[in-house]
Write a structure and sequence with these properties.
Layout (H helix, E strand, L loop, with lengths): L4 E6 L10 E5 L9 H10 L1 H7 L10 E5 L7 E5 L10 H18 L4 E4 L11 H15 L8 E6 L2 H14 L4
Parallel strand pairs: 1-6, 2-4, 2-5, 5-6
Antiparallel strand pairs: 3-4
Helix pairs in contact: 3-4, 4-5
The structure holds ligand AR6.
The site of ligand AR6 has 23 residues, from helix 1.
Amino acid sequence: MTQVSIECVRGNIANQPDIDAIVNAANARLMPGSGVAGAIHAAAGPGLAEECRQLAPIEPGQAVISGGHDLPNACVIHCLGPVYGVDTPSEKLLADCYRNALELADRQGLSSIAFPAISTGVFGYPIEEAAKVAVSTIREVVPDLTSVRLIRLVLFSEGDLAVFRAMLASELPGT
Ligand code: AR6
């Protein structure tokens, strides 16, 4: 199996110029919002919302792909995370986001993808639990990837970065 790199960084998901596809923590209508969706749509320009109109609505756990428009990335993969405890089972729906986004990127022949911590802002998913779902799902999917070679997790705060780093070290030692 060719090596897949998995890394955690602190940063802005809308400023990852070396990555093929960035993942949006979207709303069902795929319209600009706050947090990640706000940052991505602001950087991409109005063409992104225009393209997204035909792709919406999406369901929790689903992933759809669009162009990157004014972003430095070729593509945006839009995932609707679960509202914690409301869209249930939340754990399965959050895992579906990571799995569907990775498989979609792989099918498109992309080599790199960057994720924010889906559902951990407005949607209220506790960061520790979200990190466990993210890292364990990535671990499950990685052996089946043929094109994706870099998976980057982009965290907004030092605290969230520390949680994801610790999870990566315990679930995927040596990455
Ligand atoms: N780059 C990386 N991470 C970010 C950024 C950024 N620019 N901005 C925020 N975060 P959220 P959700 C972190 O609320 O919980 C939207 O309004 C943030 O600290 O963006 O899936 C949509 O329209 C948090 O840890 O996404 C939806 O309605 C994480 O990214 C709804 O909110 C996710 O926060 C989606 O809620």
